[in-house]
Specification:
7-stranded mixed beta sheet, 42% strand, Nucleoside Triphosphate Pyrophosphohydrolase, globular, 7 strands, alpha+beta, 142 residues
Amino acid sequence: MFLINVEAAVLKGDKWLLIRRSTKEAHAGGELSLVGGTVEQEGDSNDILERTLRRELFEEVGVEVKESVRYVRNTSFVLANGKEVVDIVFLCEFDKGEPYIKSPDEVESVHWMTTDEIINNVEIQHYLKDSILAADAIRARK
């Protein structure tokens, strides 16, 4: 059985919201990433992916995004413990709040970066770059 993870490619102007994950995190600790988290089991439910996305944004960095979120892409990976994860990225437009480290166990720092800054940063993993490029392409078609 897969775990389902959602991530928010949050755009404000020409910059994307990234976090540096806490080194306490078992997966990708200390790395720059999008804000996101695992979908919790709810039984019968509507819009669970979008609600999870909004919950994670508010819990981790205290921000809200506009109502409309757009699907970007999905990938899969395997955690160190062998659990398989389906990761789904959504394009979100920033609405309100000032991002801050609301959950220090999950977030070490908060950053706004342009697409070029992300793509040219050697520290950032290829899958994050691919997600930003895909989200930026969708944004450009809007």
